[in-house]
Amino acid sequence: HAEVKMQFGKDPREFNVLTKEFVSDGNGHVSGINTIRVEWTKDASGKWTMKEVPGSEQYFQADLVLLAMGFLGPEEKLIKSLGLKTDSRTNIETPKGKYSTAVPGIFAAGDARRGQSLIVWGINEGRQAARE
Predict the structure, then answer these.
(1) Residue 8 sits in which domain range?
(2) pLDDT digits (tens, 9 = 90+) for 34-73
(3) Cα–Cα distance, 99 to 110 (Å, whole number)
(4) Which residue in 3, 37, 125, 127 has its CB near the most CB atoms, within 10 A?
(5) Structure confidence at residue 74 (pLDDT)
(6) Cα–Cα distance measured from residue 37 to residue 41, given in angstroms and rounded to the nearest whole number
(7) How many domains does one find in the chain?
(8) What is the pLDDT, as a whole number, of residue 5?
(9) Which residues contact 78 (CB under 8 A, 6 or more apart)?
């Protein structure tokens, strides 16, 4: 990014920006995105959440939009409906070195158990959970 900064006078990357809308050129192609800045805050339970910053709306012109999705943990609704326990990072809780949860017949592996990580860990843990 140093080369781009030298060429254009600033780092082109944008952080803590939430896309609100993809804008069409009227012919089925993207022409830009409407965004708003966000701040990360902890709620009453200590879980990280995004809070929109009022007045920070911005339009970015674009011919191509690449999505980079952050990981905020396993789906809370599913975890609650199955009666699963979570750790302090909201990952599905399992005994150390195991993949079985406190609910008989339900196992957790990969990102759901350890948090955001490499796909090879998910594959490996999925295989180990199947053996367990």
Answers:
(1) 2-61
(2) 999 999 998 888 888 889 999 999 999 999 998 776 667 7
(3) 10
(4) 125
(5) 79
(6) 13
(7) 2
(8) 84
(9) none
